[in-house]
Design brief:
- The chain is an alpha/beta fold.
- Helices cover 39% and strands 20% of the residues.
- The chain contains 13 helices and ten strands.
- Strands 1, 2, 3, 4, 5, 6, 7, 8, 9 and 10 form a ten-stranded mixed β-sheet that branches.
- β1, α2 and β2 form a beta-alpha-beta unit.
- The termini are far apart.
Length: 332
């Protein structure tokens, strides 16, 4: 029969056990985010058309939201694009959205409902203007579109806004000098393939899958939009100051560009919300978006361009307080 431990032995064993539990407790406290609860409920993120980059980006973000914010359900809303997205957030029909800076500024300048409530979370990636024509088309510049049938995007889209500005900069009246169709990227490629339109405008991240697919089955090219037009865009003032000269790299659409880059116009995209959105939720959601750039960038090249150093610049919007907390927490 085992003998009972001496009293001094029992005391040492008890002290050792207590110390072990204390160390274990400290380790748990260090490793687990105790006391920090995940935001819960449902929020809506307004994206874009099913074949556009906004929608694909939002879809790829959902697994990251589920992992980082397990109690929060992020519901995606299809939309016509930037203009509709800004309106939805400003009026409370969506909680977050991706929208181009020119659409945000236009909404603010027109003092539409809720414009003063809009806030920025992050500058994301740039949209590039695509002017797509058949490879055999005589159109060599924006001005050559005069008298032709051109798809310019739905009324609530960012592409409609930027197409109208680019046409005006080229000296064309969008309502008189062309036959403008309100089709979006979901139908534009097929219309061009069937010769129902002479050209279409698209504004999106690189590459846009619908244009990539079109290039694999049809001989098309991209019409350059030169720096002279950018200067004229800036002369328009207001929202046009957010456009900048850019170059589509040759590898964006290998079947179209055939080793050559294309001059065009770009505008920054923003992740936006409202002033009254919960700061803790906004901080965590912004963190997930920034932290997901590399993983999503493997499938959506534009996401690779989300840069922590520039994400804080959400002009024309003030930063939301929650987003500000995030950037302060990661500041070197």
């Amino acid at each position: 029969m085992l003998q009972a431990l001496p009293r001094i032995g029992r005391r040492r064993a008890l002290l050792a056990s207590t110390a072990a539990f204390a160390v274990f407790g400290l380790l748990l406290w260090w490793l687990l985010p105790l006391g920090e609860e995940s935001p819960s409920g449902t929020v809506t993120l307004s994206t874009g058309t099913p074949t556009g980059v906004y929608e694909k980006y939002g879809t790829l973000l959902q697994p990251a939201f589920a992992k980082d914010l397990p109690e929060l359900h992020v519901r995606l809303l299809h939309s016509d694009g930037s203009q509709e997205n800004v309106r939805r957030v400003a009026t409370g029909r969506a909680d977050f959205a991706i929208a181009a800076a020119d659409a945000v500024e236009t909404y603010r300048l027109e003092n539409k409902p809720g414009a003063d409530r809009l806030r920025g979370c992050a500058r994301l990636y740039d949209d590039y203007v695509h002017l797509v024509v058949p490879r055999s088309s005589p159109v060599q510049s924006v001005a050559d579109l005069k008298g032709r049938t051109v798809a310019v995007g739905p009324g609530g889209s960012g592409v409609r806004l930027i197409a109208e500005h680019v046409l005006a900069a080229a000296g064309l009246n969008p309502t008189k000098d062309i036959t403008a169709l309100p089709d979006g990227i979901g139908t534009m490629p097929d219309l061009l393939k069937r010769h129902k339109i002479d050209a279409f405008f698209w504004s999106g991240g690189l590459p846009t899958s619908a244009i990539t697919q079109l290039s694999r089955h049809s001989a098309i090219r991209l019409v350059p939009i030169g720096s002279d037009l950018v200067a004229k865009l800036h002369e328009q003032g207001s929202a046009s100051r957010y456009y900048r000269a850019a170059v589509m790299p040759a590898d964006a659409y290998p079947d179209i560009e055939q080793g050559s880059s294309v001059q065009t116009v770009a505008v920054a995209n923003l992740l936006i919300t409202r002033e009254d959105m919960n700061a803790d939720l906004t901080e965590k959601l912004t963190r997930t978006v920034i932290d997901s750039r590399d993983r999503i960038g493997a499938q959506v090249h534009a996401a690779q361009l989300v840069d922590l150093r520039t994400a804080i610049y959400t002009d024309p919007l003030q930063l939301h307080e929650g987003a500000r907390r995030y950037y302060q927490s990661v500041k070197p």
